[in-house]
Amino acid sequence: MSNLETAPKETLCRQGPRAEDVEVLPPRDVPLGGPRAMPVRRTLPQRKRSLIGSWCFLDHYGPDLVSTSGGMKVARHPHTGLATVSWLFSGRIDHRDSAGYAVTVEPGEVNLMVAGRGISHQELSTADTTVLHGAQLWFALPDATRHMAPAFAHYAPEPVRRDGAELKVFLGSLAGSTSPVETFTPPLLAAEAMISAGAVLELDLDPAFEHGVLLDTGDLVMNGCPVAVDHLAYLPTGQSSLVLEAGDTPVRVVIIGGEPLGEQIVMWWNFIGRTHEEVVAYRAQWQAEIGVEPPADSAAAPPPLRFGPFPEGTPAPLPAPVLPNVQLRPRG
């Protein structure tokens, strides 16, 4: 399945004759893991905008009653050339990966999985989760680190309280708070902000960064531009401040940002590479490792495992979709 299905048209909100536009990107509904899987709202990538800094993917889900949605049941699947960031508002998710990490994702605690040259993992909401609500994001690794060994980090940021708001900075730096988590990419930012009804939160920004603000709940005006719930508002580089005004209901946002990656990527399914041929090779190796398709040269010695090993007794892995009958094009 493509990550770039047709979505409603984005909108622009002009702030003034000398100010940059705020670009508001609408979400599109996507089943996570298959047609009958848990629905998510995807705001990145889109046809017009593939990257915000190094950020290349943003899924937003819930609040969902697990008794109705079935919760998150994403069996083992592969990644290359990227890092996954899990951030929960409510519920819990069990993460297990082929690098040997097995952790439970908790609300307000970031889990960062760096795929590097290749990893596979599964994500299953826990049996005690009744309401699941959160976001998963990916950022692309630059060419200098995309072939590194897989890595994992966990961090619980201390809240920063100011101006009727509470911030949790889980990657990068904002509002005087800095995360210690290494990202192996050009400088980037990720934070959650809760803003009381009627409050105004003003933040200093790094003008070298692009920024995105995802509205989870509440009435929000960002830099003079109204933003609808579930939409992602984009600010280009050159902006030195962010003004978030809450209306009659409290606001929760996820703020992302980063220096432009400065590289083109080829992104398909769960793989990020630099060429069509590279992604085709990743798919072929995954299919061979899980026994779905034989290797192209069955007489040759099998290459070292890129995406394994994985413990026995776990759900069957997800096979890769069929590749499109067109050349995969670079983005960014």
Secondary-structure map with pairings?
Layout: E1 11-13, E2 22-25, E3 28-31, E4 39-44, E5 55-65, H1 66-69, E6 73-79, E7 82-90, E8 93-97, E9 102-105, E10 110-114, E11 119-125, E12 131-140, E13 151-155, E14 160-162, E15 165-171, E16 173-174, E17 177-178, E18 188-195, E19 200-204, E20 210-217, E21 220-222, E22 225-227, E23 232-235, E24 241-246, E25 251-258, E26 266-268, E27 271-273, H2 276-289
Antiparallel strand pairs: 1-2, 2-23, 3-4, 4-5, 5-12, 6-11, 7-10, 7-12, 8-9, 8-11, 10-13, 14-15, 15-18, 16-17, 18-25, 19-24, 20-23, 20-25, 21-22, 21-24, 26-27
SSE succession: EEEEEHEEEEEEEEEEEEEEEEEEEEEEH
Mean pLDDT score, rounded?
92
N-to-C CA distance = 20 Å
- Characterize the largest beta sheet: strand count, sense, and whether it forms a barrel: 8 strands, antiparallel
How large, in whole angstroms, is the Cα Rg? Answer: 20 Å
How many strands? 27
Helix content: under 10%
Q: Strand portion, in percent?
A: 35-45%
Q: Structural class, from helix and strand content?
A: mainly beta
Number of helices: 2
Strand order of the largest sheet: 1-2-23-20-25-18-15-14
What overall form do the CA principal axes indicate?
Answer: globular
Low-confidence stretches: 1-7
